[in-house]
Amino acid sequence: MQNLTKLAYKLRRDVIEMIVSGKGGHIGGDMSVMEILVTLYFKEMNVTVDNFKSGNHDHFVMSKGHSVETLYAVLAEKGFFPIKEVIEKFSKFGSPFIGHPNNKLPGIEMNSGALGHGLPVAVGMAIAERMNKSANRVYVVMGDGEQAEGSVWEGAMSGANYRLDNLCAVVDRNRLQISGCTEDVMALDDLHRKWDSFGWHVIDVADGNDIDELSRAFDEAKIVKGKPTVIIANTVKGKGSPVMENKASWHHHVPNAEEYAQIIKDLKAREEEA
Fold first, then answer.
1. 73-105 burial by CB neighbour count: b if 16+ within 10 A, else e?
2. Gap between the Cα atoms of 169 and 269, Å rounded
């Protein structure tokens, strides 16, 4: 099997190149969510260029749409479009590779930007798959700051009400948002108990940047019956280089030349170690 940890660090470099080229991007959250998307697209989900066209595949919603750079990097690696094109055109005038998911691009099913919308849409997708008697599953990735949105909890209530065991949500729990620590801005803990009280099966992943831990969580989610599952993945914002890690100021930041050089060096070193 492909070494997915190495791949995650390679794709982080693609994300850095995108952000530097486009002169903007949500770099911190891109880095924290990378292993989640790599595990989903290269191990868990039945999504390919060919079956995407037919509609008969697992479904993915990037609710934390501001981390679209990671989604673009993963989809390019899957063969949906060339990574060179993404890097050259990202966030440029007239480009389809905009700063939030664009469903005019292959591989993307839902536009997202305003936080809190992804889970309700994923609930609808899961209901549709059940009505079609399909084995396809629905996955949605949310940010932890996004948990302050009321529509998230309406979606949570609906998912449990309809017993959607074909639905799996992931919370990228990096504990930082644009204005600081989540617990200072809008306290979330105990997040496990909140989701449990809404009727979801809750899986805590201690290291949400560890692909083996994530894989075990997704495998567990697949065998849960009668309720949806949420995986709370404890990640590191800016994962990959001490220049960025656990710093709220890197929520949206373009590296300068010195920062860029150090980050690329750190990412290459971690890729070699993996």
1. bbbbbbebbebeebbebbbeeeeebbbbbbeeb
2. 32
Peptide bond into 212 cis (omega under 30): no
Does residue 58 have a cis peptide bond before it, meaning omega lies within 30 degrees of 0? no
Secondary structure (3-state) at 129: helix
Closest CA to 62 of 108, 27, 98, 28: 108
Handedness of CA 168, 174, 175, 176 (dihedral sign): negative
- What span, in angstroms and rounded, lies between the C-alpha atoms of 269 and 124? 42
Show the tokens assigned to 114. 């305003």
HEC per residue, 194-220:
HHHHCCCEEEEECCCCCHHHHHHHHHH
CATH 3.40.50.12780 matches 4-273: no
Nearest to 107, CA basis, from 169, 52, 67, 152: 52
Structure tokens at 244: 């960025």
Starting at the earlier edge strand, list the strands of the sheet with 59-62.
59-62, 138-143, 167-173, 229-234, 201-205
Tokens of 137: 């599953």
pLDDT in tens, 151-205: 999 999 999 999 999 999 999 999 999 888 999 999 999 999 999 999 999 999 9
Contact 231, 169 (CB under 8 A): yes
Residues in the chain: 274
Convert the pLDDT of each residue in 19-31 to its tens digit.
999 999 999 999 9
Report how far Cα 241 is from the mean position of its chain's Cα atoms. 19
Q: Which residues pair with 96 in a beta bridge?
A: none
